[in-house]
Amino acid sequence: MDQATNLRRLVLESDGVRKTRTIAITSGKGGVGKTSFAVALSIALARDGSRVTLLDADLGLANVNVILGIIPKYNLYHVIKGKKKLKDIVIEVPEGFKIIAGASGFHQLANLEAKQRQDFIDAVSDLGEDDYMIVDTGAGISQNVLSFVSASDEVIVITTPEPTAITDAYGIIKSIASQAPDKPVRLVVNRVQTVSEGRKVAERVINIAGQFLNIKVENLGFIFDDIYVQKSIRNQKPFMVTYPKSKASSCIFIIADRIANREIGESKGSGIAGFFKQLFKQESLEAD
After folding, report:
1. Cβ atoms within 10 A of the Cβ of 83, count?
2. What is the mean pLDDT of residues 217-244?
């Protein structure tokens, strides 16, 4: 753990306010590298000494485990059915962080009774607080995706330079602006050929969002198009592990550093239990 990371943790713990920062990773369009980014970011933050949990919340195409080359035996479904404790389904992976497989279980969460929800939140509290919980949502603007985004402390939108991806990125930002206008939104442009291309795409999205949605989107950075990313996906080994000095890995480390080095006061999260409380609240509103 580097000195800066240790200092941030000590300051927050001394204030008695340290809670997990929950960051939703989302995109308007599928196939832009959202899950690959979520895994890579988790690895980069963990290597910086942070405690990280990655929650696979992509209800349609849960594939965090595929990228990591593992097959979870249990997920949230087994917790809700009372077959497993929540702590039993948390998997510590060799890359230095934890994952929660929850795809099929999330469908069940919406149907829990009030006492069951409270019991679930109490079980979440037993997990303790990490520094970060990365939430890999599905793509698009479905209510499921927006519920996870709204429940998180902040959101990162992933796009590529392709016109369809940019249009869909604007679409998800528009939906966020409508449902959670105060949510901090940041943008990452994936698969760029040059620094200039990454900057131009980000400026285009940010300017349009500011002009037509009156929402401030922060440019978090870009990731170079890199053959080692696809090669790693095919081999089910994260490129941050197999090719840590690749162009894509270098970009991820820069982005992780920007996330970790935000002002201390801004980095106070609502915690994992707070995330699920907010998620349940969103689902209740949807049901009404």
Report:
1. 11
2. 96
